[in-house]
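sry for the spam today, last one i promise. struct tokens for design, 168 residues
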């Protein structure tokens, strides 16, 4: 089972009424051309790294996966990744519009993500900055140190507290 995160395509590309999917079964020595709806980033406008992989864990574990990097700005060869590696120039397909160019306020993926190369990454919603340099969000209540005392012991996703003990 081949699965592409954050992107969709039609099972029958030529049929506008065809089922929209994000996974498809393919066998060894078989291929399938994906005509991604709305282009790279799909309808949701995803930017960053999307994983595509086999859903059979032994295949995934042995390396049957990779990343598809989707940039939000034109990559003309003049930018670098945070570690200093040059970003190769990329041109959109001929039937697609050019993305906007990079500028000081819009450095493009991955350079708009706050952090320092080689250090532990910051986690959203604090990991992305506004043009003014402020985080785009604030920590959810359960990540604020002052709220830990209000949570019940145990992993929240497996053993939630009874409704009578929940405090929001």
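last one done:
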């Amino acid at each position: 089972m081949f699965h592409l995160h954050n992107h969709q395509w039609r099972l029958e590309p030529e049929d506008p009424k065809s089922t929209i999917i994000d996974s498809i079964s393919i066998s060894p020595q078989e291929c399938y051309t994906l005509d991604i709806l709305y282009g790279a980033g799909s309808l949701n406008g995803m930017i960053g790294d999307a994983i595509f992989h086999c859903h059979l864990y032994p295949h995934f574990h042995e390396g049957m996966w990779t990343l598809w990097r989707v940039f939000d700005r034109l990559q003309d060869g003049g930018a670098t990744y945070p570690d200093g590696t040059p970003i190769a120039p990329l041109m959109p397909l001929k039937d697609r519009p050019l993305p906007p160019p990079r500028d000081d306020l819009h450095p493009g993926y991955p350079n708009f993500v706050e952090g320092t190369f080689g250090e532990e990454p910051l986690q959203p919603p604090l990991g992305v900055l506004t043009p003014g340099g402020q985080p785009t969000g604030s920590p959810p209540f359960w990540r604020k140190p002052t709220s830990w005392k209000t949570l019940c012991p145990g992993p929240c996703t497996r053993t939630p507290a009874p409704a009578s003990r929940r405090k929001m």
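The helical segments are 57-61. ok im logging off now
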